[in-house]
Prior knowledge:
alpha+beta, Arc Repressor Mutant, subunit A, two-stranded antiparallel sheet, HTH_MetalResp_TranReg, transcription, HTH_ArsR_DNA-bd_dom
Amino acid sequence: xxxxxxxxxxxxxxxxxxxxxxxxxxxxxxxxxxxxxxxxxxxxxxxxxxxxxxxxxxxxxxxxxxxxxxxxxxxxxxxxxxxxxx
Length: 86
């Protein structure tokens, strides 16, 4: 599984409110933590410390921005492909 695929899977797990994500991967816990760190630095997730735990959540604003960006590009490419059909 590629790095990008692992990060997408982490995002999917957080979206489904999974409480334990480390067990979903065949990589070490520090490796998963590294992916979470990248997602945190990219502002895709937020993190809250609670005693000895770190609670990660999706940053809904960042996800909305990605959705809007994707929608614009999908529309642009759809128009270009429609012109090719003419």
